[in-house]
Amino acid sequence: MCMTTEFEHLQAAHCENGVTTNLLRSAGATQLTEPLVFGIGSGLFYVQLPFLVINNGPAIAFRTMPGLIFKRTCDALGIPVFRKKFSSRETGKKYLDDCLAKGQPVGAQVGVYYLTYFPKEYRFHFNAHNMIVFGKEDDRYLISDPVMEIPTSLTEYELDRVRFAKGAFAPRGQIYYPLEKRIVSDEQVAKAIVKGIKRNVTHMLRIPGNVAGVNGIAGTGKKIKKWKDKLGDEKAGLYLAQLVRMQEEIGTGGGGFRYIYGAFLQEAHAFHPIDELLDISKIFTEAGDKWRTAAVQAAGIYKGRIGSQADYNVMGDYLIEISEIEKKAFKALSKIKWNT
Amino acid sequence: MKKEEIPQDDGALNKLTKEVVYAVDSSGKYSSELSTGWDVKTKALDLAWEDIEKRIEAARQKVLNNEASPILYFLELRLMDMGILAAYTGFWKWTIKNHLKPAAFKNLSQQKLQKYADAFNVSVEELKTMNVHDN
C-alpha cells in the first residue's frame, strides 16, 4: 500500500509555525511564511506563571499557548479548519488512514517522550509537538516534522504511541487540517497582519499585574535578584538554565522568538509600506540581542564561572532593561496608523 | 543577531538536524539560517540532565534503603510525575502514593505490577529489581 499527498516540506524554527505554514501553503495560501504566520497568530508573549514548577524549574513561556497560532491564522484568513480528537487508537488510526487515502495531508499533535527520531536529551513528557503526516508506504507513515531539515517516517506503532501520549496537554490523537483549498488574497493577508499586531500589543502591554507581557519580564528580573538567597546556588543555577532553555531552545529562532517577530515586521512592510515597521523591527532585534546577552550572563552563573549577588543583579537588570525595550516597541506598534 | 554571529557549536540536537534561527545581514534584512547549536544552551540542557541523574540515583538509594518502592525510582528514570503516571496506569494519584511504600508494593497483584511495568516500558521482573536494559 502506498499513499502520498501533494505536499511540500519546508523547515521552520518552530513546530506549530511550520505545520501551520506548510498546511496552509498546500491549501492555497502560498504567500505565507513562518514569520507571517507567527505574527498573524500573535505568537510573541512572555509569562512566568506564579507558584507553578515545571520539570523542577520556573514555568516560563516566550510564546503564546500551543494551538493558538494555527487557530488564529486560519480564523484571520477565513480558512475553515477541521479538528478532531479520538477516544480510541483504532478510530484515530482509521481516520488518519482515510484522510491520507483521500490525498489530505494532516496536522497531528504528538508527545515527544516516545518520539523515536528525537535525541534522548530532548525527550521529555512534552505533549504539544506538531507534525504533518503526508503519506504512508507499507506500514510506515511519512512525516514532515517542521523542525527537521528533511521529512522522516514512523511505523504505525511509533506514530500511535506519540499520538496517544498521556499527561498534561495529552494529544488524544488530535489531528487537524484546512477543510478546503482557498486562494488567499494579499488584501486578506494585509488585514490579518493588522489584527495579529493589535492583539499582540494588547497581550504584551495591557495584562495587569507583573506576571505576563512586558511587566512579566521585569517581574522575572526582580525575582532573579532574590534567587541566590532564596534558592541557593545550585537550584538558582538550574532555574536560570531552565529560563535559557525556554528562551533559546529549538523552535525559538533565537532570542526568545524576538528575531522571528523582527522578521515578521519586515515582511509585514511588503503588505503595508509604512516605514515605522522597519524601525520597530530593529527594536525587536535589539531586544533579542539583549536576551542573548542575558543568556550568556546566566550561563556564566550556571557554569560556576561567576555567581556573586552582584552577578545575579546584573542578570535581573538585563530583564528589566529588556522589558523597557519591548515596551517601547509595542507602544510604537500601537501608534501605527494603518491604511486599511 | 547578525548572520556572522550565529553560533555553530556542538549540541545533542546536532545528531538529528540543524535548527533554523533568524538573523540579519549587513543591510539589516532578516532571513532564516541554520545553526548547529550554541554552547550556552547545550550547557543549560546538560545541567538539567545532571539534575535528573542525581534524582534517579537518590531514588535508587531510597529504594535500596527500603524507604520507598521501585515505583519512585522509575518515576524519576522515566521523567514522570504523579499526574503522568496516573494517566498511563489508570490508578488514582493517592493509590500510587500508597504504592510508593515498600510494604504496599510487596502486596501488589501481578495485574497491578504489570500496569506499572507497561507504563514504565519494562518487564515486571525489571520493575522489581530496578535492573533495566534500555536499548
**Uncertain ranges of chain B:** none
Number of self-contained structural domains of chain B = 2
CATH architecture of the largest domain in chain B: Orthogonal Bundle
Strand count, sense and closure of the main sheet of chain A? 7 strands, antiparallel
What is the level-2 CATH architecture name of the largest domain in chain A?
Answer: Up-down Bundle
Write down the Rg of chain B: 22 Å
The percentage of residues in β strands of chain B lies in 5-15%
CATH uppermost class of the largest domain in chain A:
Mainly Alpha
The structural domain count of chain A equals: 2
Q: Write out the strand line-up for the largest beta sheet of chain B, numbering strands in chain order.
A: 1-2
Shape of chain A: globular
Biggest beta sheet summary of chain B = 2 strands, antiparallel
Estimate the mean pLDDT confidence of chain B. Answer: 95
Average pLDDT confidence of chain A is 95
Annotation field: number of helices of chain A = 10
Give me the CATH fold name of the largest domain in chain A.
Answer: Four Helix Bundle (Hemerythrin (Met), subunit A)
Considering residues with a beta carbon less than 8 A from a beta carbon on another chain, report the largest interface and each chain's count. Answer: A-B, 54 and 38 residues
Number of helices of chain B: 7
What keywords describe this structure?
heterodimer, A: 340 residues, alpha+beta, Cathepsin B, Chain A, Four Helix Bundle (Hemerythrin (Met), subunit A), 2 domains, seven-stranded antiparallel sheet, two-stranded antiparallel ribbon, 10 helices, 51% helix, globular, B: 135 residues, mainly alpha, 434 Repressor (Amino-terminal Domain), two-stranded antiparallel sheet, 7 helices
Commentary on this structure:
The complex is a heterodimer of chains A (340) and B (135). Chain A is α+β, with helices and mostly antiparallel strands. Chain A folds into two domains: 2-30 and 81-178, Cathepsin B, Chain A (Alpha-Beta Complex); 186-334, Up-down Bundle (Four Helix Bundle (Hemerythrin (Met), subunit A)). Chain A has ten helices and nine strands. In chain A, the strands form two sheets. In chain A, strands 1, 4, 5, 6, 7, 8 and 9 form a seven-stranded antiparallel β-sheet that branches. The longest helix of chain A has 36 residues, at 213-248. Chain B is mostly helical and 135 residues long. Chain B folds into two domains: 3-37, no CATH class; 47-129, Orthogonal Bundle (434 Repressor (Amino-terminal Domain)), CATH 1.10.260. Chain B has helices spanning 39-64, 70-77, 82-89, 93-99, 102-106, 110-120, 124-129, and strands at 19-24, 30-35. In chain B, strand 1 (19-24) and strand 2 (30-35) form a beta hairpin. In chain B, helix 1 (39-64) packs antiparallel against helix 2 (70-77). The model of chain B has no long low-confidence stretch (mean pLDDT 95). Classes of the chains: A alpha+beta (340), B mainly alpha (135). At the A-B interface, helix 7, helix 8 and helix 9 of A face strand 1, strand 2, helix 1 and helix 3 of B.
